[in-house]
Amino acid sequence: MKNVTRFAVAALALAPIAGFAQTLAPSQDAYVVPGNGSNFGTATTITVGSSASVGLVQFDLTQLPAGLTAAQIQHATLTLFLDHVNAGGSVNIDTVSASTPWTELTVTGNSGISPGIAVNTSAPANTAATFISVDATSAVQGWITTPSSNNGFMIQANAGTSVQFDSKESTSTSHPATLTIVLVSVGPSGATGSSGSNGASGATGPTGVPGPTGVSGPTGVAGPTGSNGTNGATGPTGVAGSTGSNGTNGATGPTGVAGSTGSNGTNGATGPTGVAGPTGSNGTNGATGATGSAGTNGTSGSQGPAGPTGVTGSSGAGTVLAVKFQNSVTATLLYYPFFSVNASTTTTFGLAAYPIPGPCTLSAIYVTNTVTSASPAADAITYEVYKNSVATGVKATVTTSTTQNTLVAGNATGFNVSVSAGDALAMGITQGNSAPTVTSFVSVRCN
Length: 447
Description:
The protein is mostly beta strands.
């Protein structure tokens, strides 16, 4: 589950856009209980306060544009989803000390994790199923200046507080922590000056020592499978192998019982041939002879040509909100959270809502769906964006195929619906006749 989630969320992170927010998913999260040697890196929640437990969350900043400086970090916001409240109060959020790195599958309460600099000393934590956001600009600027100091955030409960936040392994509400970073806008480039004459080439300097290999970025969500290429021509039949030698003959079966000998009469003229007597029973079969050696294989036919590569869609500027899910068989309005793969369904808007970090305008919706149930009937499914639990009118209706595992696509453009920072969005669907089970992938552009 851990790898799937990391894969899904990282692939849905927003592409870098100058002057706009880039939202990162956690690269690792866990919690520890001081003095306890157990590891909780695969838990579906980050428990804070119970038995003095401490939460840990880290983000991979190598996903940001290369060459980024601290001065280009305009603002950074850490957002946590409060999944459950045992005892309300507040939490204290610090960076993890640069001297105490950790990994989610080995960290325990005996690892000696210590706090670094303060981020927020009293973030309210009173109401379940809500988001908590704090300013983390100084922490991120420090990590950009000194990348080796990035050991993530430490979350500790203030007196009497006991709560649980969603981890990236959550499969119910599926709201892992996010780090939204707003980059400083870059002005347009000036006109290119005329090229000067080339100077003489200098002598080639010695090759420098290769730098260390950077950390691999997370794998993006797999795109839809392309159509199969045409089959190659069948290769000619191979030359038949030589016939194997015959096995040795089996032993002869026992002779049947002889009839009694009649007395010899005088030889008369030869009479007609008598009717043949019954055949004696067969003797037991001899052992099967050894199989002859196999002939050599014929040469393989040439490989058929590869099918054509599908057309790549154009990349537009702005934020892309995306979600992949399999809808339940129901005609009731259902909600799904953005930035989720195999998202869980809910009839409650608040459990699927995603807060938008900056203002943008909803302009287009793109949908593909595939029927996974056998012998499906066609069904018209409407996909619509809901803002603060109200339908926005940004929607597309796609009629499913009557053939199992067949991809159908649809889109709608030309919308102009404004979204403000802090507005909550979710994907809602309604299904017509409730017949097929459908896997859908939806992306919405917000410029």
